């Protein structure tokens, strides 16, 4: 699908046809558990991370990077509900940061932090002036109507409702993969000691 002949959303290349991207971006979503177990995806991420300029993720995409072993022992962030999973995968969660950089790896917290990450990457790649112009072009000047955009600001009731909403958004077939993910991580810990 194109928008004004500028933006194309869709698959144009297979993983095999993309051996050395400059920037690897791993989004999160409702199929994150499946991606965390997809050996083709995990092997590809490990391989392309070796030569990428930037390896980045938003939301639960960091869990996929962690499943590939890319975040082992490194600080990172993810959606607040999944911080425990990030830790169990061997990363060092930074729950109070929207963006966490560790060398060429950059992770962003929940969905809206992805906009911050995109602007930050634009600044690193094209310079601050271009990134500021992009920010103005998209008129990104957040002024949320409620002050609950971080778990530290939300009431327990709001946190509970948000968690229920997230749990309901994950398809049953994806939830059933969680024990397999835990088992893989256990085997990895036994094998590597980390």
What features would you describe in this structure?
With 194 residues, this protein is of the alpha/beta class. The chain has one domain: Rossmann fold (3-Layer(aba) Sandwich), CATH 3.40.50. Helix content is 44%, strand content 13%. It is built from 9 helices and 8 strands. The protein has helices at residues 32-36, 39-49, 61-67, 83-88, 113-126, 128-137, 156-169, 172-175, 178-192, and strands at 2-3, 7-8, 23-26, 54-58, 75-76, 92-93, 99-102, 105-108. The strands form 3 sheets. The protein has a 4-stranded mixed sheet with strand order 3-4-8-7, with helices on both faces. Strands 1-2 form a two-stranded antiparallel ribbon. A two-stranded parallel ribbon has the order 5-6. The termini are far apart.
Tell me briefly what this model is.
With 194 residues, the protein is α/β, with parallel strands linked by helices. The chain is built from 9 helices and 8 strands.
């Amino acid at each position: 699908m194109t928008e004004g002949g500028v933006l194309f959303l869709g698959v144009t290349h297979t993983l095999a046809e993309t051996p050395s991207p400059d920037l690897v971006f791993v989004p999160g979503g409702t199929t994150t558990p499946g991606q965390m177990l997809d050996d083709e995806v995990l092997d590809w991420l490990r391989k392309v991370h070796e030569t990428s300029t930037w390896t980045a993720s938003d939301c639960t995409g960091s869990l996929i990077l962690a499943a590939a072993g890319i975040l082992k022992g490194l600080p990172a962030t993810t959606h607040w509900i999944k911080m425990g999973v990030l830790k169990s995968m061997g990363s060092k969660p930074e729950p109070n940061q929207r963006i966490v950089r560790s060398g060429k790896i950059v992770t962003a917290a929940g969905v809206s932090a992805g906009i911050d990450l995109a602007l930050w990457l634009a600044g690193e790649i094209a310079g601050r002036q271009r990134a500021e112009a992009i920010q103005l072009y998209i008129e990104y000047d957040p002024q949320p109507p409620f002050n609950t955009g971080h778990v530290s600001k939300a009431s327990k009731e709001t946190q509970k409702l948000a968690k229920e909403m997230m749990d309901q958004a994950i398809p049953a077939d994806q939830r059933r993969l969680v024990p397999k993910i835990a088992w893989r991580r256990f085997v990895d810990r036994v094998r590597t000691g980390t």
